[in-house]
Amino acid sequence: MDNIYFLMLIALAILAVADLVVGVSNDAVNFLNSAIGSKAISFKTIMIVASFGIAAGALFSSGMMEVARKGIFNPSEFYFDEIMFIFMAVMITDILLLDFFNTLGMPTSTTVSIVFELLGAAVAMSLIKIGADNGSFTDVFNYINNDKAIQIIFGILLSVVVAFSIGALVQWVSRLLLSYKFEQKPTWVGALFGGFALSSITYFILMKGIGGTTFAGESFDIIGGITIKELLETKVAILVLLNFIVWSGVSFLLMKFAKINIYRLIIGVGTFALALAFAGNDLVNFIGVPIAAWQSYEAWMASGVAASEFSMGILAKKVPTPTLLLFIAGMIMVLTLWFSSKAKRVVKTSLDLSSQEDTKERFQPNFLSRGLVRFAISASELITTITPKSLQDKIDNQFNKPVIALSQNKVHELPAFDMVRAAVNLMVAGILISIATSYKLPLSTTYVTFMVAMGTSLADRAWGAESAVYRVAGVLNVIGGWFGTAIIAFIASGVILSLISFGKGAAIAILLLLAILLLTRNYISHNKKAKELRAEDSLNRAESSSIQGVIIESAQNISNVLKRTNKIYTNSINGLAKQDVNLLKKNKKQGEKLSNEIDDLRDHIFYFIKNLDENSVGASNFYINALGYLTDIAQSLEYIGKVSHKHVHNNHKKLKYNQIKELKQIDLKLEEILNQTQTAFANQSFEQIGLVLDQKEDLFTMVSDKIQTQIARTRTEESSPKNTTLYFSLLLETKDLITSTMNLLQQYHNEHDGSITPATIDQPKKQ
């Protein structure tokens, strides 16, 4: 039986490594968001700075490990075997929960997840013990550190509101003073801002760095015999003032003589500081439990007492964590930061919600987001009516965003926000976390950094009429996910603990196997989605400013659309012929995906037209019409895919042999034409389009004949209304598909060969 605990220890060590990977993937958004979003420094430099911050923070985090041992439950109330079961349940739950949120691309709190997993498992074990002893339910409070749990819940609620409010206020004041022309302000203005920001971040580094080491507990005569930690916590005003004076002077000298952009320096130092805080604070969330298990195992082995009789009061004592383990954990975190694609996806969610530019919105509006936006609009209108016009104009002038020449900066390469907002994000997050640390308040770095970023976005007018309902819905979704994390972590950890407690080794083996299977499945699913996003058949936005440029640029798009059209249409017919509901389901999704991609291109029209020079405005008509025809093609395919899947999914009668045969004849002829057209566009041999257009009438005639045949068939032999409806729907939508395709080809053919008199082209039917 003793071997099972050693095997559990090995399993916990492996889970710790995996938890480090999924944890960093989730929390990278905390310290990368501002630097990546502002593009103030290169991505490589950001990663190097963050890596040093993580490595330093990991080495300073030894003192935080106490949370896993005694922060949530009273260890003296449990025996060794019970503690090991609690730790195993916590780690299995944690890795699955964090990986789930990473796969969704949603930032969540590793602090809250580990705390509520410990709480859930401890409560479940307490109830099992109470039940075995025929005790009272109220006895559970003897096992749990109630004050700490209440503090953490209070910290969650407080951090969300305070971080958002303070972030919004500081950003509004900063923008009011600096405007968007901050680089044109006098040197002393930038120096004062740099002094304020850098002094805040420096104090934050001292609190989270030196304050977390054993060195901080030593007293020195030179500072009055008090410890470094006491100095940082009691002499806040003096330290901050001295810091401010020093950094303001340094900022002035750097800007005046070295011509250094102080905002870039703030962002670099702030990124290091938050990375240090993340590793120092949150490393306990990933390895605190396995280290506590290892220390428990050592104490139990030395005792010689049975596992079910050895009390774990030893965990209440302060035990330092070996520096080597902290170093190894830090290196794993750094490697994950560089290579995790899920980390990039979580960062993207935060950037999209705070972007100053229009982005493809991930979240759909809901009644709550609409209500909040309406309330905000009403409040804004009220404030506007009572604010003097002259003052309102001055304020608006400070918030006027400079027009960026899109011909020099492609839309998708623009920063999500400017350096002032990035600096405020880092500065405010650092200040709030420092204050919470000095008062020993439990705080989630994820909650603080995310809500500060959302508050600064609101104050900076990044949430305009075009995007507010989507952004607010996104923020509400993320916040809902945070509270969902706490509830799910508590329940899931309790359930897993119960299974382990009753099933012992067999239950642990099954749960570990299940965890591996789920992680593998999520990894494969994530890679598959990533490959789809990188697929060569995906559509690219036009950036050219002339008709010929658009023709050349969009040729690959057209080729890709026609290739996918061919595949989707053929799969619809084959799926109906074979009654293959799985093929039709996948095919329907492919049709929806193509339609969404084309919608994304249409959303880019505003920027495309803005990019045009005065002599090339005609390119806009060409591009808009081309997108209209592509939209028609996608909608026809989407409809064909939908009705085909619905027919088979509802188990309606199979189409008759002659109907399938006729559809296949159309499919083969359409495939031949689409292949020719795809080749012409892929090779940019636009003169070949004329050969395809010559076959237009033959294809229309074929479809019309099939319609007439089905009319006759319906009057004489057809007995299924569902089959008749489906068949006519397919033929009519196929006719629309052919019309849209030929109109598109005609437009390209006419523009490419100016000697041909433009034919009358039907306008797109589904704008």
Automatic annotation (TrEMBL):
Name one cellular component (GO) term.
membrane
Q: Where are the transmembrane segments?
A: 6-29, 41-63, 83-102, 114-132, 152-174, 186-206, 236-255, 262-280, 319-339, 419-439, 445-463, 475-500, 506-524
Location within or outside the cell: Membrane
Example GO molecular function term?
phosphate transmembrane transporter activity
Output the GO biological process annotations, alphabetical, semicolon-separated: phosphate ion transmembrane transport
Q: According to its record, how does it sit in the membrane?
A: Multi-pass membrane protein
InterPro entries listed in its UniProt record:
Phos_transporter
* Signal peptide, first to last residue: none
Q: Which domain of life is it from?
A: Bacteria
Please provide the record's keywords in A-Z order. Membrane, Phosphate transport, Transmembrane, Transmembrane helix, Transport
PANTHER family on file:
PHOSPHATE TRANSPORTER
The UniProt similarity line reads: Belongs to the inorganic phosphate transporter (PiT) (TC 2.A.20) family.
Provide the protein name.
Answer: Phosphate transporter
What organism does this protein naturally occur in? Answer: Maribacter aquivivus
Q: What is the lineage of its organism?
A: Bacteria, Pseudomonadati, Bacteroidota, Flavobacteriia, Flavobacteriales
